[in-house]
Amino acid sequence: MLYSHTIKLVRFYKGVDGLKTGYTEEAGYCLSATIKKDNMRLIAVVMGEPTSAIRNAEVSALIDYGYNLYQKETFITEDEILGTKEVEKGKERTVNIVVKEEVSSVNKKGYKIGELKYELNLKPLNAPINKGDVVGNLIVKEDGKVINKVDLTVEKSVEKAGFFKMYFRYLGDIINGKIKFN
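The chain above was modelled as a monomer; its predicted structure follows.
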């Protein structure tokens, strides 16, 4: 089956992956196009064009403008471990902390990013806890100014430990001197 797409840019502009064309007498030829290139997604919208050819040319020019002037810089990826945190009553005692979405910014090309500092704010963790659950947030500051705030989650789910697991863990902690009685 041959797929025909009404957005001609999908075939003629590498990276364009959709969105919506339209025409009405009042609005003219309109197009919302999306493109992902160099790990950065742009959306270009034009409205009120007299022809579909002009509409496509205008969107192409907007996309070129965006990629020529701006770039995306990623600071922290979703698989980067930011630290570990103890899980109360978990089958595992600790879990790795990660961001729910990558931490990045889009800036004009040539922009020099200032000093970045990260502030982790974590809640106490009690099992069970699932990957994707919000366990805190990460605040990103550039030269002391907050530029981003993202949710934190756990790298993998942690089930609640059963009675015997907790009993033997507690016993082991006593034997290993982690718990002391006065």
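The chain is about 20% helix and 45% strand.
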